[in-house]
Amino acid sequence: MAATDTPRTRITWDYAPAPESSDHVRLRDTYGLFIGGAFVDPRDGQRVASINPATEEPVAEVTFGGAEDVAAAVAAARAAQARWAALPGRERAKYVFRIARLIQERSRELAIVESLDGGKPIRESRDVDIPLAAAHFFHYAGWADKLRYGVGGRDAAPYGVVGQVVPWNFPLLMAAWKLAPALACGNTAVLKPAETTPLTALLLGEICQEAELPDGVVNIVPGDGTTGAALVRSEVDKIAFTGSTAVGKDIQAALAGRGMGLTLELGGKSANLVFEDAAIDQAVEGIVQGIFFNQGHVCCAGSRLLIQESVAEEVTGKLWDRMRLLRVGDPLDKNTDVGAINSAEQLERIEALVESGVQEGAVRRSIACDLPERGWWFAPTIFTEVAPAHRIAVEEIFGPVVSVLTFRTQAEAIEKANNSRYGLAAGIWTDKGSKAFEVARALKAGVIWQNTYNKFDPTAAFGGYKESGFGREGGAAGLRPYLRVS
Ligand code: NAD
Ligand code: MN
Questions:
Q1: Which of 169, 268, 287, 442 is the most exposed place for a label (fewest CB within 10 A)?
Q2: Span 132-137, mean pLDDT?
Q3: Which atom of ligand 1 is nearest to the CA of 346?
Q4: Average pLDDT, the chain
């Protein structure tokens, strides 16, 4: 054998388990509804177990509110609203700051509970969800005494009582996106967390108590779609919703003609565009971050990967090599990249769409990995040979699945990217600043990242076009939906 063929050193190794300890987490066995500043028993709601999707074991018992519970929460919010709005902005700010500080203080516990209840990797809940949730409260605390500056110097008044329905993909972070601006602007709120992930919202209820927030300013009523539908039809002044386009349409219909405020943050099928002049290795990292972050349960996920034909083979080859290094498994392990799928229902949706991709003729590759016996899992998957009309190129999969399409020219890239009923986000990978700006201007998407993906910041507005909804969250733009401006 020639000397050059001799492998120099071959080290085979694997990661040692690195489980985050959950000893210090103190969950109650059972949680009531957080109404009027206290955890109360349901009137017509019922107790259900909240499940850990990685083990299918219960984490704690919670209460799903019925219509009477929702009405009681709205009444508590109504009773608290005038005094809350009458506080000077700097006083409201103190409470919102306190909530932010308490989230930081309890961040380790919150991160673990987020991962236990929802299945996301602890690395993400620890480094993204919880710090960003605190950052949102900090940001809007700063706005509370400057509202006029946020609306061009005009007079602004709170809406009153707002109903807020959030999804299961970023449970505490979405609660923060909704509550922080609402409170800063002088509204009181009834928040409905998603059915599979109510626990961190309930801990946020405890934090509101610790912050000595006046009773009734924040009310938290977990539940499923029935509870959400009851909140939408209750005596609130505004609804803020994040979730599926189907439910968004139902809410819009229910509110029609009632003169209420409404913001909808719905689904997406966001295009991530890689041009031939991009730094390919960085782009591959960005593609991975764009679609496999949070198991792809991300409304703005870069799920349609559009690659310029001249580099398509190189990019998909490198992407596949990188994907094979992803570690799928125990969400509480600090080395895990991809955790559990949030629910059995969501896993079924992913499997059905992936099956349709195979049936329609796209080429599927899923990485080989040992998936745990219990719980809900899906191996990171890439589809090539995808046609624009395939369901996997059109519909939101909301899982760790990327569909690859190609383009030849910039004009074709723009046309294909905009060929969607959604318009939430997009990514552009190119070395040329002028090209990035030109393409960004032509894309019909609310958030556009250049040479990065899935970066979030409380100062930046987030929201969509077309069936991705309307209204903006984050930054000064995020004040508008919580104020009546005259
Ligand atoms: P969903 O829209 O049904 O649930 C989102 C929230 O709305 C939950 O809190 C739910 O309890 C509540 N809800 C359900 N029906 C309601 C109704 N009629 N009135 C008021 N509230 C209601 O979403 P899902 O069923 O959990 O997921 C389905 C699909 O939606 C996913 O596969 C994904 O494509 C999409 N989704 C998008 C987002 C996002 O961030 N944009 C979040 C979750 C799901
Ligand atoms: Mn759960």
A1: 442
A2: 98
A3: 32
A4: 97
Instruction: With H, G, I as helix, E, B as strand and everything else as coil, classify residue 178.
Output: helix
* Amino acid 12: pLDDT: 79
Letter for the amino acid at 28? R
Listed in sequence order, the residues at least 6 apart from 91 whose beta carbon sits closer than 8 Å to its beta carbon are none
348: left (phi over 0), alpha (psi -120 to 50) or beta: alpha
In the predicted model, what is the mean pLDDT of residues 144-164?
Answer: 96
Q: In this structure, how many other beta carbons lie within 10 angstroms of the beta carbon of residue 295?
A: 33
Query: Cα(74)–Cα(187) distance, rounded to whole angstroms?
Result: 12
Residue 195, ligand 1, Cβ within 6 A: yes
Distance CA 305, CA 416 (A): 11
Taking the CA of 170 as reference, the closest ligand is 1
Rounded Cα gap, residues 41 and 46, in angstroms:
9
Closest-CA residue, ligand 1 atom 12, reads 225
Nearest to 297 by CA among 248, 347, 250: 347
What confidence tens digit (pLDDT) does each residue in 402-448 have? Answer: 999 999 999 999 999 999 999 999 999 999 999 999 999 999 999 99
- 201 ligand 1 Cβ < 6 A: no
**Widest CA span in the chain:** 85
